[in-house]
Design goal:
Distance between the termini: 31 Å
Strand order of the largest sheet: 1-2-4-5-6-7-8-9
Strand content: 5-15%
Structural class: alpha/beta
Helix content: 25-40%
Largest sheet: 8 strands, parallel, barrel
Radius of gyration: 19 Å
Length: 290
């Protein structure tokens, strides 16, 4: 069973509900504008195997515009979409290549990774899902008319990954004015990686993953547009301190927090004033914060 089939009834119900709603009042419209942006973490990863095309589609079926993913480089220099630096948790690499421990992404070619099953571990119906290349992933996000929060994963492991990521984005049309303006964010836990992206493409919106000390925020504002911390590390005061500063493009720094999966916590961090919430359960967070 495909994830689109699995979520079709829910989507249909949502569409039916939308058809009978009255037009929003000005107050309601304002409240909607103030709601945090919801980012589907590794796709809608509560409903489909993370970082697969099925997870992209699951987010689309739920009406979620933004998906988040992770990119790494294979042994032969191909960008693939996978979170862990090893393949063992989310694929059958240990069974297919039993003598290749520790099954590090960097030790496998793109062709070898393409052989792996990245869906069976998650549940019935996802057998045969594959680890997509970044190119394949971009095609699906574009086809769904979605937007992308792209994380450069473990950049210290992959010298030059920033340049290669930008090259693929450019070749696939994701660095044109429309995409750069409103459809793409590149983030990383590596401050130097974010700096490199900004240096190579100053127009691209960037985010730093982490919770810098308030005193250090001005130095981050010199090269990024967002401070994206774990929800366990923030407060309303911290969010306000970030948003008081202007980022590298002259706009207030934004805060996208992660990974919030339940309604109560989503409502709490929304109350802190965050700009976005990254979540495995995007429908839950959306419904709790609008």
């Amino acid at each position: 069973m495909s994830v689109r089939t699995a979520t079709a009834s829910g989507a249909a119900a949502a569409l039916l509900g939308a058809c009978v709603l009255l037009p929003a009042t000005p107050a309601q419209a304002s409240a909607a504008q103030d709601s945090p942006v919801v980012y589907a973490h590794r796709g809608a990863s509560a409903y489909a195997p993370e970082n697969t095309l099925a997870a992209v589609d699951a987010a689309d079926d739920l009406g979620i515009a933004w998906v988040e993913n992770d990119v790494q480089l294979t042994k032969d220099g191909v960008l693939v979409v996978v979170h862990d630096t090893t393949l063992s948790r989310t694929t059958d690499a240990e069974q297919v290549f039993p003598d290749r421990a520790p099954w590090a992404v960097k030790d496998f070619t793109a062709a070898e990774i393409a052989k792996l099953d990245a869906g069976s571990w998650f549940g019935a119906g996802f057998d045969g899902a594959r680890v997509p290349t970044l190119t394949q992933y971009l095609h699906r996000v574009e086809s769904n008319r979605q937007k992308l929060l792209l994380e450069i994963k473990s950049p210290e492991t992959y010298p030059g990954i920033e340049k290669e990521t930008l090259r693929v984005l450019r070749e696939e049309g994701w660095l044109d004015r429309g995409h750069v303006k409103s459809k793409l964010i590149i983030q990383s836990f590596g401050a130097e990686s974010v700096k490199t992206v900004h240096a190579q493409r100053p127009d691209v919106v960037t985010g730093f993953l982490g919770t810098p000390a308030v005193a250090d925020l001005p130095s981050y504002a010199a090269f990024t547009d967002q401070i994206n911390p774990s929800y366990t590390t923030i407060s309303a005061d911290y969010v306000a301190a970030v948003q008081k500063l202007k980022g590298v493009h002259g706009k207030p720094l934004r805060v996208n927090t992660w990974t919030v999966n339940d309604a109560a916590k989503a409502a709490e961090v929304a109350g802190f004033g965050v700009d976005g919430i990254i979540t495995n359960n995007p429908d839950t967070v959306r419904d709790a914060t609008r």
